[in-house]
């Protein structure tokens, strides 16, 4: 297993650690969970750089890297949903976009085509991870910073919708409605 794939697997291992820290009852559990989330998010940047720069791109990495990102982000969003700080409709948008884009990619592969990650998808991932970090930081604020939460939710929803629409607009020829 190469270095890039080891970093991806580290991100996978950190997801349950994040979840456990989120639910433990001690005064700084949120900050411990945030630290794990930040480290896991940074492994996403690092593994991608290493894979491309040192020619360590593998089929395993192509599969696991985006899956690890999705599970990490959806886990954090679900935690914020459980607190009432992330609306379920926004989580539904994120989940629907991920299923739709994954389905589009499956159809493309079946037609002998690979749909690479687009720039808007990378912006969506980065802005989502940053917004979730910001929401972590504001957990302890009293009164809660609802405006910050809503700004983050809007940024996440808009970048998610935009990137999803862009994937379909750029690859509309993949979906042959008559086939």
Total number of strands: 0
Based on secondary structure, the structural category is mainly alpha
Number of helical stretches of at least 4 residues: 6
Task: Work out the helicity level.
Answer: over 70%
Biggest sheet layout: none
The whole-angstrom Rg is 17 Å
Distance between the amino and carboxyl termini = 40 Å
Proportion of beta-strand residues: under 5%
* SSE ordering: HHHHHH
Average residue pLDDT: 92
Low-pLDDT runs of 5+ residues are: none
Shape annotation = globular
Helix and strand topology:
Elements lengths: L2 H21 L5 H25 L5 H25 L4 H23 L8 H19 L8 H25 L9
Helix pairs in contact: 1-2, 1-3, 2-3, 2-5, 3-4, 3-5, 4-6, 5-6
Concise synopsis of the structure shown:
The protein is 77% helix and 0% strand.
Account of the 3D structure:
By secondary structure, this protein is mainly alpha-helical. It has helices at 3-23, 29-53, 59-83, 88-110, 119-137, 146-170. The longest helix has 25 residues, at 29-53. It is globular, with a radius of gyration of 17 Å. The termini are far apart.
